[in-house]
Amino acid sequence: MQAERKNKANLKVIILGEFNVGKTSLIKRYKEGKFDPQEEPTIGASFYLKRWGPHNVAIWDTAGQERFMSLSALYCRGTKAAILAFDISQKDTFNQLEKRFLPLVNSHTEENCLIVIVGCKVDAVLESNRQVHRETAIALARELNPTWKPEKPPPYYETSSITGENVNALFEFIFEYFLPLSESEKNQYNQMNKRTKHSVRDGTVDLQSKSVSTKRKCCSLL
Amino acid sequence: MSIRAFELVPAIETVTQISPAHDKSKSSERGPQLQVQQQIECIESCGKNIFIGTNDGYIIEYSFDEKMLNGRTGYESHQTKHRFLGQKKPVNQLKAASALYRLLVQFDGSVFMLSMFDLEPVTTASKAKATSFCLNENPDSNNPFSVQMCTASKKKQLHLFTVTEDRIMHDHEIQLPDLPVTMAMDGSHICIALTSQYIVINCDTNRLQDLFPYDSETTMPFVKRVAKEEFLLSGPSALGMFASASGISQRPPVHMIDNLASICYSHPYVLAMNEQFITVHSVIDQQQKQIISFNGGRVLGEFDGRIFVASAREVYGVVPVPWEIQIQSLLADKRITEALDLARNSYKTGLTKDRFNKIYETIQQQAGFIEFSQHRFSEAVELFKSGLVDAREVISLYPLLMPRSSNYTRAVPALHDLADIRQITHGNQQQMSEYKQFLADFLEDIRETRRVLACREEVDTALVKLYAEMDTDKLCKLVQNNCKADLSDCTEVLQQHGRYHALALLHRARGDLNSALALWTRMLDGELEGDPLVNIKYMAKILTSVTDQHLMWKYADWLLKKDEKLGVTMFTCQSVDGAELEPAQAPAVLEFLQRYPEALLKYLEYLVFSLRLEKEKYHTHLALLYMNNVQNLMKTNNTEQGLLEDARRRLQTMLQDSSAYRVHILLGKAQELELSAECAILHGKLEEHEQALEILVHRLRDYAAAEQYCSVNARGRSRSYRHKLFYNLLTAYMSQPADGNTETAKALMEAAISLLNSSKAEFDGAEVLRLIPEDWPISLVRQFLVRTVRRSQHECRMKLVEQALAQGARAGAEVATASVMNRSEIVTEDRCCAVCHKPFRDPQFLRYPNGIVSHIHCSNHRHICPVTGKLFKVILPHPRSGSPTKTTSFQSSVTKPQIRES
């Protein structure tokens, strides 16, 4: 970790959101390919480094608890991309985004910061019992990124850290947006990813997550 | 994941005994009942001195010595000076400006300066009103004899001072939004804890950067400089926050203990202290690494690289445990991964790369032995290999594997505390064999690496012994593959396990063929336990490669006695590459083999058929041997007919195929033995075809053989020879049998007719016609006649075609010549020679068919163009004549010039 640290990160991504919406799980799912149902609450903040082709991407995970809110400003500075995460099954977590986290993002991050809205725990809801509608979230995503071209898919993802749905797609979308990779670099990245994932899962292939990583489902409705 | 990263070492035992003299005077002044409990309020260390500020207005100086005892740091200190500041108020802050030899003291609401020599106040310098102060730890100024100081007062402002040896000069002040509590300064940045938030101010530009707010009721603010423009702050929930001057956090926070009393930073650890404990946190992985129990801690600080902690009365040094020791203790706990991780991370701490690698290797080796002792072989192998372990160190763990000659002693200091594998396995046979298998695999793996060169003998010896015991076929491969094993040691083991074949191979690999062969012969003679691989053939193969003549003859005798047929292979299977060459020792071998007829025959066959030597001596010898064979078989009549026929067929084939033998010797012998068929072949060899055919036709009456004979002998001969040969046969058929038997005569005639009509035979028709008796009806020889006429007609027509073709070719050539010869070339005055580029002076010149015109003397060759080098001479096959080629040349023409007047 220390050796990795030496390389200056080319991109800083921060993830913000209410307590217990699954921010840490989301990152761990992406970085390690596994889900820990007993994830400890993050204290303060934690930091992950991910290689993206020749680049280093720093992902900062923040604590959602109210008492750490004051610290978030420190971590928001210098951020080019912010992930605002909420729990699809809890309406309140979505409302809090605008109330608590948006001011943070607006006042501390870099100019033209990409704001990606992420609805977590999509595996836990059905269309019938979800509390935040896709359209509402998409509307917010478009509103927060006023320069976003309407023909492009909105920066909104619904993810599940349990199944891995859309997790890779989300991060790859952000990285690709800032640091586009050449074809060969991408292949390399995919291979590396595959290797680490497989080693973690003892050689079994998670069909579901694989299908997700190849297809971007989130905007299929539009 | 705890590590002993630091340990407490007493530095100053008890501060109560500091100034008995003074205490006495105090007690005499105020009476014993009024004696105040003296406590440490703040400390500062500079060089070899520790300054202590007490709660009752004393500054006491101790000097200490750092001593290394058993690899551990210890402090010895004694009090040197002290000063009473005049009021029994606490000394809040002490800072040394070592370059100025001054001590800055915050006492009684102001900051002033003391000399370090005698702790006397510097009277030339004014006091500054301040509640707290800090020095710039990374000053911008170039003057080493001045210090930047920043003070906080009871107003919402900071004051900046420049402190020199004798002055404290006010530079400017900075307005703040709130009252300052504590601060740290780095360059032009000051990080300040206000009453409810942290900020950073740039004192040059006065730009204010908010960091984060804190709750002053639950959080005690701390500001420590960590690195350039980076500060460690205490945040909510006892978080240690890192913040840079630009308001960004570049490291994740560390979670410290509650009720913080003090914090300090010493890379890569953050130390935090409360009433009961000092905790150590790594900034690498944000984990708590160590808890040191320490009651009543009041001050914790890092001073010039040393960390001191003070309780009310004592001062302790917090000494970092050298990382080697940390690793050793991890290894002692068998926490290998952590030890290796720590080792890798400690590389930063100022070691050269080489030295670090050395240490790291040792650690890997130690770790390897731990894995080894716990049966985790694959991990052990990895560690042994990457730690470049000395193979002998591993071998020495196995009893009886080291060669006796080896004087290897285990590494000092010991890499492990293992006696041998018997100790590890507690004598469990199953485990023992697993360990042995491990060693075998490991040694096999590293055997070829360059590192092992120095201890190759030990490695190979150990391997030989292991394989001998394990009974694997790798043993034989090993001993032949550049094995450096100790011979005497291995001999014993191999004999003990009955691996004589391997022993012999080892001898051979060492160049001691004599011992090797002796062993093998003993194995084959049944004296020693044999090996399925070792048989006569194998021995022959071995002997083939023997270059020592003496040895070869010695064992050749033994081998031939054992088995002639196989034994002879030692002579015959050699030198496959130089097969065409006659073996130099062939005469000697033949001489030697006289006693072994069967072997001799085989050897001659080898010389004649396999090597295809065309030496008369061998061929004759072989033919004679074949003939003797036949003779012997004929003598003993009771032998099977098949055997005799077989022998004769072999003789005949040999006589027919070979032509290197001396025919007359064999012919004489064949006639003597009345071997008619052989005689016929021999006559044929002498080109005495009449005699041969005579024998075949009249004596053997084997007409098929006679015709076969003709076609064999006719092969590749000229037409007239072929005619003559078949004519001879016909004559033989036509001549009357000697006994006048009509049956035979009839058979002969039939044979003659069928020969005439057969398509295989070739005759000169005219001659044959003369031979055919008058009384034969035409119908008998019709076929022959028709074919003869047809053939001669065909030949005649072919000739005509050839003639016409040749004429055509000739005409074409003539036309070409004529057209070349008739071309004219006009040479004017300005025309130059293509070779020398000079004008033509002579009336004669050369012109080549490609238009190149040159002087005659400029051309070297009539047929080769001097400019392009083209050859104007074509070699054409001539259709008519028997000679294969005829040259047609397009000669360059020598032309009379036609000089045209211009």
How would you characterize this protein structure?
Chain B: Keywords: Cytoplasm, Lysosome, Protein transport, Transport. Chain B: This is Transforming growth factor-beta receptor-associated protein 1-like isoform X1. Chain B: It is found in: Cytoplasm; Lysosome. The complex is a heterodimer of chains A (222) and B (902). The longest helix of chain A has 18 residues, at 91-108. Chain A is globular. Chain A is of the alpha/beta class. Chain A has helices spanning 2-6, 23-32, 72-76, 91-108, 134-144, 167-178, 183-200, 207-214, and strands at 11-17, 45-52, 55-62, 81-87, 114-120, 156-158. In chain A, 39% of the residues lie in helices and 18% in strands. Chain A has a six-stranded mixed β-sheet, with helices on both faces. Chain A has one domain (2-214): P-loop containing nucleotide triphosphate hydrolases (Rossmann fold, 3-Layer(aba) Sandwich), CATH 3.40.50. In chain B, strands 1-28-27-26 form a four-stranded antiparallel β-sheet, with no helix packed on it. A four-stranded antiparallel β-sheet of chain B has the order 2-3-4-5, with no helix packed on it. Chain B has a four-stranded antiparallel β-sheet with strand order 6-7-8-9, with no helix packed on it. In chain B, strand 3 and strand 4 form a beta hairpin. Among the domains of chain B are: 6-321, Methylamine Dehydrogenase, Chain H; 823-895, no CATH class. With 902 residues, chain B is an alpha+beta fold.
